[in-house]
Amino acid sequence: MNKKLFILLVLLCGSCLKLLAQEFQTSLIIKDRFGVLDTVEIGFDQQATFGIDEMFGEDDIGGIPLENTLDVRLGYLNFNMVECLDGTVDDLGEVLVQSKKAIIPINCNDQDLYREYISLFVEESRYPITVYWAKEDFQTDCLFRSFMSPNFVAGWFDAYCGSPTCQPTPQSYYAELFLRDSVYYECPSGLRYINQFSDTLNSLTISLSAQFSSSLAEIESADINIFPNPVEGITRLVFTDYLPEEAFIVLYDASGKKVFSTRVYQESSIDLSELHAGVYVYEIVDGDELLLSGKIVKI
After folding, report:
1. Model pTM?
2. In the predicted structure, residue 192 carries a pLDDT above the cut 80
3. Three-class DSSP category at 55
4. How far is it, in rounded angstroms, from Cα 10 to Cα 22?
């Protein structure tokens, strides 16, 4: 069967399953450097825990060696214990759970802000990899701030730990799941886990989140234009149908280091002439809200 057709069918089946089981369930399909595919399931339910929940079809496979093919697993990390040492995390210590399915506790009716995490583990030798999902599944007020990242989470942003082998493309730092349907990771993440069988796994972070107060409709109505892009010196930022209260644009270089930040208004001119030529990741935030992220090219 054509691999693209197979991926589409699995994603469609995942969308159907979520209607028959817990509150939310969807599929992630991972393709490795050899073209081999594997599928895992993520989701949430108010009755779920961060352990193995047999009622949701979770099985603890942490004691089973990896198969001699692509064998992607899900688990949970204590991010309070993760630190970057010399640009990389060589050993994440104990991973609490390993399973092909992870259903976590989220209550979409809770008015408190939340963000919960799932770690996706891929054997380092399998990189580069591509991860596919159905973006329509995340286009709800409950999940529209969900994202995937090769980094650990340090707040409302993610902090890059660095890869020992290569630098990632800016597009892979922060993949918003409701805006795109795939992401390509050329580099293993700097979050490395060595299991009891001496397999070297790298962790991607999946955040199921509606942490910020604006609804999906409000964010989509905040039309933001940045032009010109690519830019040689000065670019302009214009908000349409949105009045920022305390907005900033922040730029990060290829290593994830913040290199530029300035306050922006409904219409602003931004002088980037002091930056070196290259591709930068930008984030536009207003107070506690991340309005937009993307890339800008300095020439």
Report:
1. 0.65
2. no
3. helix
4. 18
